[in-house]
Amino acid sequence: MSQMLLNALLLAWRAIRRNLMRSFLTVLGIVIGVGAVITMVTLGNGATLMVSNQISSLGSNLLILRPGQQLGPGRDSAGAPNFKFADVEAIQNQVPALKAVAPVVGSKVTLVAGNQNWSSQVSGTTNDYFIAGNWNIAAGRQFEPEEETVGKAVCVIGATVKKQLFPRESPLGAELRVKNFSCEVIGLLAAKGQGAMGQDQDDVVLMPVRTAQRRLTGNQDVSTLMLSLRDGVAADPAMEQIRRLMRERRKLSDNEDDNFNVMDTKQIAQTLSGTIRTMTGLLGAVAAVSLLVGGIGIMNIMLVSVTERTREIGIRLAIGALEHEVLLQFLIEAVVLSALGGLIGIAFAFVTCLGLTTLMNIPFLFNPGINLLAFGFSALIGIVFGYMPARRAASLDPIVALRYE
Amino acid sequence: MNDSASAPLISLRQVVKTYGTGTAAFRALNGVDLDIREGEFVAIMGPSGSGKSTALNILGCLDAPTSGAYYFRDIRVDELTRNQRALLRRQFLGFVFQGFNLLARTSAQENVELPLLYRGEDTAHRHEASRRALAQVGLDGWEHHTPGELSGGQQQRVAIARAIVTQPLVLLADEPTGNLDSKRGHEIMELLVSLNREHGITIIMVTHEPDMAAYASRTVRFVDGSVDSDTRREAA
């Protein structure tokens, strides 16, 4: 009996080999479908891992306070008021678990230095920002207390800004034109590289918060607070304390929801990973449709092939092939084809993922689960879509089939 | 012949074959009685439409009679299912066609192996048997050529090798020389005669060429769906 099965496999293999080009075209749909599914899922996994890695590299002790309900999908920040500088001081004074409280206000602004110009994120903040954001000063210095209180036009620039505007000379002491005012460069940040969302973290200009409020945003608002916990302090009680303080300061009654949110890096990572997972799922589903289309392609070509091979089927039946043997042969042909397509698709996806992850600078996570799933699914497609053509081949009348021209 | 007293290998009794129904019905066979003994070489002749091809299809178990009885040894073939007839063909019969009907782009050896694959034979036995069958038809050294690389006569030899590789009791040939020139045709007939004489294979051949029919030991002539004449000739 196993010899019978072996022979059926051999018969199917010989039929595939006889029409190599057509066989290849038949499986192309499966190859692309399987390749697309695996590539999407692998890239999605890699991106998720990269995001959570980078966010945890920010430090496990970072909290972010923003107006509005939550980050990510369904976010409702409309109408939620920004913070005031008084909020910053209140948190500083009343939450002892924090070692740094950095307000952030800012916008994307065009910078000019000499005959160069560059557009960059300009943030107004305090010296606490260097602690909360894990920044080191590569050259120069931080803000002086007096610069912070009066809002002097001084700034610390990131490595990318230096590269774009001061490619050769030292930027320290140079004049940087920010929108419509001139600013003295007093410090240069150590380079950090790419951020969690693929953005360039070094493309920043920092200045005292009062300077930014007065000259850029024109109001007293603070849009974000970056908070850094003292070492060894648990995040949850501190977050709860901040939440209560903010509810009190914003005069929210008991039946009102928070109109701000405070998240630690773990939650941020989860929210972002959740978003990426949704995208991955979506793209994977689109790719799965192409796999289905590939299956229909197999059925189509197998049906044509049955018609074209009518005479051959007649010969097989005349020399004693049973109906179920012809059925089995065509079914095996379809399964071998689609499984072969699956294997080529896996190899194709492997190479594509290797290239794309290198290009996009995300880790390559080989996921055996999705590879097995895609392969199993492609074989299943062979059975499902191969059955109808196989049934048709097996039910041919040998006399009619032999006479078929 | 020593088996003249024993029961015939094949018996048709009042076999009728009708195609279509109602007024469009056409009786291709109209009550045929025919006995064929083991070791005979029978040529079936007759004008087109006389029912000779229908008779061959029924004798070859490719088709079932509408009524009447067909005994193969002691098996009632007319009562068998489609699959049972296929098993009977696989076990006892070999086919040679006018158009050779080899699988294209497939080597001679793989073509000859085909019936053995359906019998579930293992690789070693398949190779041995197919080489032996090809040698028997004079195609030593042509095992790996595909039909496209062989002449018509050689292709028909491959087809004969495929028919005899299972060592069948009966070889059914439908105009085996119809697509060949007369020189190749005579060579094929000599091959069939030698298979009949030396290996005792019963041969039933449909032909419309009298000089091919002359190789047979018996000629059955069909006219209008019935046996018109049945002549035996003592082998030379």
- Per CATH, what is the topology of chain B? Rossmann fold
The rough form of chain A would be described as elongated
Fraction of helical residues of chain B: 25-40%
Tell me how many strands of chain A there are. Answer: 12
In short:
The complex is a heterodimer of chains A (405) and B (236). Chain A is of the alpha+beta class. Chain A has 13 helices and twelve strands.
Structural features, described:
The complex is a heterodimer of chains A (405) and B (236). Chain A has 405 residues and is of the alpha+beta class. Chain A has helices spanning 2-18, 20-57, 85-94, 128-132, 145-150, 159-165, 209-217, 235-249, 265-308, 310-318, 323-360, 368-394, 398-403, and strands at 62-67, 83-84, 98-113, 116-125, 137-140, 154-157, 175-178, 181-189, 204-208, 221-222, 224-229, 260-264. Chain A has a six-stranded mixed β-barrel. A two-stranded antiparallel ribbon of chain A has the order 2-10. In chain A, helix 1 packs across helix 11 (323-360), helix 2 runs parallel beside helix 11 and helix 3 (85-94) crosses helix 8 (235-249). The model of chain A has no long low-confidence stretch (mean pLDDT 87). Chain B has 236 residues and is of the alpha/beta class. Chain B has a single domain, classed as Rossmann fold, CATH 3.40.50.300. Chain B contains seven helices and ten strands. Chain B has a six-stranded mixed β-sheet, with helices on both faces. A four-stranded antiparallel β-sheet of chain B has the order 2-1-4-5, with helices on one face. The longest helix of chain B is centred in the C-terminal third of the chain and has 18 residues, at 182-199. The radius of gyration of chain B is 18 Å and the shape is globular. Chains A and B meet through helix 1, helix 10, helix 11 and helix 13 of A and helix 2, strand 6 and helix 3 of B.
